[in-house]
TrEMBL record:
<dbReference type="GO" id="GO:0046872">
    <property type="term" value="F:metal ion binding"/>
</dbReference>
<dbReference type="InterPro" id="IPR023214">
    <property type="entry name" value="HAD_sf"/>
</dbReference>
<comment type="similarity">
    <text>Belongs to the HAD-like hydrolase superfamily. CbbY/CbbZ/Gph/YieH family.</text>
</comment>
<protein>
    <submittedName>
        <fullName>HAD-IA family hydrolase</fullName>
    </submittedName>
</protein>
<dbReference type="InterPro" id="IPR036412">
    <property type="entry name" value="HAD-like_sf"/>
</dbReference>
<dbReference type="InterPro" id="IPR051600">
    <property type="entry name" value="Beta-PGM-like"/>
</dbReference>
<keyword id="KW-0378">Hydrolase</keyword>
<keyword id="KW-0460">Magnesium</keyword>
<dbReference type="InterPro" id="IPR023198">
    <property type="entry name" value="PGP-like_dom2"/>
</dbReference>
<dbReference type="InterPro" id="IPR041492">
    <property type="entry name" value="HAD_2"/>
</dbReference>
<dbReference type="Pfam" id="PF13419">
    <property type="entry name" value="HAD_2"/>
</dbReference>
<keyword id="KW-0479">Metal-binding</keyword>
<dbReference type="GO" id="GO:0016787">
    <property type="term" value="F:hydrolase activity"/>
</dbReference>
<dbReference type="InterPro" id="IPR006439">
    <property type="entry name" value="HAD-SF_hydro_IA"/>
</dbReference>
Length: 225
């Protein structure tokens, strides 16, 4: 897919795009799962579950592990994530400079639950770049890789899907953007991105890749048929 003119709306994923948080969240998840008897490495967790909602990953884990996670499992995970975010979370390098340089409508559409999403944006001082245009998978029936969240964001921003450009780091998010009829470019500058991750994004439908957030304004200038 390509644009006949410059995109009208830029839709950012949050985790590992705007904020470099995946290693923090992954560590909390695997530590909490280990206490429940489910052992998984950080590399495998990232490869399999990044881009899913937490509820989607829990369903897979319960099914294949033959276990039932405690009723308060998600609450305990979120409490520890919030604790570590407050201490360790940082914005992606160059993201503020990039957002200031881009004169396009912008919003966030993330599979994170609303509370976690807003916390991440506030801690990193990115909240004011987007609010109130911050959309969470908790607002739609299906999270990524379904297209629901991106279509919901476009509708709320009064923009046709074909005029939206999505910035994603995950396979599930890339698949969701493609299913929504949106162009998507893959960001591979997150600390969780290993060799070969970009190839997976391209296979999922990303039209190009970039690893430095400060390169985005120039990429946008070049997007034409």
């Amino acid at each position: 897919m390509s644009f006949s003119k410059s995109p009208e709306l830029l839709i950012f994923d949050c985790d590992a795009v705007l904020v470099d948080c995946e290693l923090i969240a992954t560590t909390v998840h695997i530590e909490t799962l280990a206490k429940c008897g489910y052992i998984i490495s950080a590399e495998e967790y990232n490869d399999r579950f990044i881009g899913m909602t937490d509820q989607q990953s829990y369903s897979v884990i319960e099914s294949e592990g033959g276990l039932r996670l405690p009723e308060d499992h998600h609450e305990r995970v979120m409490a520890e994530v919030a604790n570590r975010y407050t201490r360790d979370l940082r914005a992606t390098s160059g993201v503020r400079q990039t957002l200031e340089a881009i004169d396009l409508k912008k919003c966030v559409a993330s599979n994170s639950d609303a509370a976690k999403l807003c916390l991440a944006l506030k801690i990193t001082d990115l909240h004011d770049f987007f609010w109130p245009h911050v959309f969470s998978a908790s607002q739609v029936a299906r999270g990524k890789p379904a297209p629901d969240l991106f279509l919901f964001a476009a509708q709320n921003m009064n923009t046709p899907a074909g005029s939206c450009l999505v910035i994603e780091d995950s396979v599930a998010g890339t698949q969701a953007a493609v299913a929504a009829g949106m162009m998507v470019i893959g960001f591979v500058g997150g600390s969780h991105c290993l060799a070969g991750h970009g190839d997976k994004l391209m296979e999922a439908g990303a039209t190009k890749l970039f690893s430095r957030m400060t390169a985005l304004p120039q990429i946008l200038e070049r997007i034409r048929i």
